[in-house]
Amino acid sequence: MIKRSFKISKFATVLALSFVMLTDASAHCKWYDAPCKARQAAEKAAAAAAEALKEDAVPFEKNELRDYQNDTLNAYQNATATVKSGYQQSVNMVNTLINDALDQLFRASARSFTSRNSQAIMALRTRMAALQNDVAGMAALHRVIAAIATKALGSDDVNDMILLGQKIGFVANQQGQIVLSGITNSSWGISYGIGAAAGVGVNESYGLAMSTVQTNGNYTFGFIRSVGGSISPDLDAGSGQIGLWWAPQPVNQQGGPSVGFGGGAALDVGGEVDFSWSVPTTLPNAANAVPGISLIFTFPLVPTEVPTHVEYGWNISGGYSWVNVL
């Protein structure tokens, strides 16, 4: 018997490996079935992308938001003087003008809003709870928080906010839309807090606002820096808390002095319900207007019993919001 020896070339090795990889990617496909091979290769790529997406879809850790503190302070530094001055003026206004009659007027406004919108607010809580099990939704929420920290909004961030708005119910003319107090041309947003690190003296929050309706085919967005009794909630730094809020005005009418107070763990929203009123003219006029609301969520969300009543126990405080409309 004649023994033959073969020297395997690099080309032959690469060719053999390529054939193995192609065979693996096209398992159960006939060798001539190109569409089948292409389909299975696309399915594998989609599966790999889904696995990568899951890495961005984990719940918020307590220290995760604190890690954004330095980036946030740098990005919003140009608004510090305005926020500090506006907040102090708002506090002075409340200390000078608030009385028992006005206090009761604001609380009556909050009770009326709660009564008319309780089912809608419950729906918001339910959808936020569902979001934590939504891979694409949680990944989008993580990316939106990162965009807020740097005050930089790209096209992908816009798509993420639209996706979240659709899932939560704050995009007009979509199935499952949530309309509070019958107001369709309003705004909503996501926010988080970094404590009192900015030097204003109280906890601040930072967020991204989005209009519920389009103007000339586009949604309006804006970065918001808030303090005190304002539209964005008083979130604890490093707690893993995320704020979801709604305001009766469109984005380009946000900002300026405000008053507000909290409603405790009302309506089973997994945390506090804060109410706030913009003060464009006088306090009595503000009290007769529709308030904005802020819901605070700490992930992972744990369902609790629905309370039988809402306690409005916090004192009314002044607030201020600075808005960078994009």
Note down, in words, how this protein is organized.
The chain is of the alpha+beta class and 326 residues long. It has one domain. Helix content is 40%, strand content 19%. The chain has helices at 10-25, 34-55, 69-75, 80-97, 100-131, 135-150, 155-168, 283-287; strands at residues 187-195, 204-211, 221-228, 241-247, 256-262, 273-278, 292-298, 317-325. Strands 1-2-3-8-5-6-7-4 form an eight-stranded antiparallel β-barrel, surrounded by four helices. Strand 1 and strand 2 (204-211) form a beta hairpin. Helix 6 crosses helix 7. The chain is elongated.
Task: Describe how the helices and strands are arranged.
Elements: H1 10-25, H2 34-55, H3 69-75, H4 80-97, H5 100-131, H6 135-150, H7 155-168, E1 187-195, E2 204-211, E3 221-228, E4 241-247, E5 256-262, E6 273-278, H8 283-287, E7 292-298, E8 317-325
In percent, how much strand structure appears in the residues?
A: 15-25%
Report the helical percentage. Answer: 25-40%
- How many DSSP E strands? 8
Instruction: Report the structural category.
Output: alpha+beta
What's the number of structural domains?
Answer: 1
Order of helices and strands: HHHHHHHEEEEEEHEE
Gross morphology: elongated
- Count of alpha/pi helices: 8
Gap between N and C termini: 83 Å
Strands side by side in the biggest sheet: 1-2-3-8-5-6-7-4
How confident is the prediction overall: mean pLDDT? 78
Largest beta-sheet details: 8 strands, antiparallel, barrel
> How many whole angstroms does the radius of gyration measure?
26 Å
Uncertain residue ranges: 1-26, 266-270, 304-309
